[in-house]
User: What shape does this take?
Amino acid sequence: MISKLSKSLCPMCGGKKELSTTTFSIDYGDGIIIIRNVKAEICVQCGEEWIDDKTADELEKIAGKARSKKLQLEVVAM
Ligand SMILES: [Zn+2]
Assistant: This one.
């Protein structure tokens, strides 16, 4: 339906994406980790968020560390 899908536009609604920061929460079963100040591209129209591969890797590392500490709740900032 869309012939010129630009990387800079939201694939959900076609809105503009802007670089910003967001808060992620990951439920890993034994507890929850909240990661603040995560770099993300956020659609100004529908609020959909994207993170790049490097950021995703970092999130995984942080979540793994929290899991190994067996904390019920961990709040960190990137
Ligand atoms: Zn959108």
Q: What stands out?
A: The pocket of zinc ion is lined by residues 10, 12-13, 15, 43, 45-46, 48 (CB under 6 Å). The mean pLDDT is 88.
